[in-house]
């Protein structure tokens, strides 16, 4: 191939890959920030998550309390304990 033909092939390829190179460079630069924010997100609990977990814990506790009340009722000799 002659030098002129190589230039005609190299210019469009270089123009098309510039976006990829720029995007990759931007991803490399912003990676530590994104990784840090993800770590903070994993290590902290949002208010919504805290409320959901508290509600779940309360339902479990209510279920345990009801089970204990039924057992105490049966142990006391009552037949209709539900």
Structure commentary:
With 82 residues, the protein is mainly alpha-helical. The model has no long low-confidence stretch (mean pLDDT 82). It has a domain at 1-42. It is 85% helix and 0% strand. It is rod-shaped, with a radius of gyration of 33 Å.
Keywords, separated by commas or semicolons:
82 residues, 2 helices, 0% strand, 85% helix, mainly alpha
In total, how many beta strands? 0
Largest sheet: none
Mean pLDDT, as a whole number?
A: 82
How far do the termini sit from each other? Answer: 91 Å
Topology:
Blueprint: H1 3-43, H2 47-75
In short:
With 82 residues, this protein is mainly alpha-helical.
